[in-house]
Amino acid sequence: MTRDLIYQTCCTNLQHREAELVTAIPELSAGTEGKSTAGDKHETAQAMAQMEQEKLANQLAMVRTQLAQLQRN
Known about the structure:
It contains two helices and no strands. The chain is an all-alpha fold. The longest helix has 33 residues, at 40-72. The two termini are 18 Å apart. 3% of the residues are buried.
């Protein structure tokens, strides 16, 4: 593989991952909004969804950092 092809492949992979994460974060929050079960079960589900959103947001920040570094070089 040539350097240009490797560079383009890396950029494309990071851009696809970024798009997946950008889509997944709102879908996760939308999935928990409509549920109205009572008690601890509901609160636990909301806390788990919040933790997953934070995890995805961290992954998104990392992908964007990697993409910026790659495009800078």
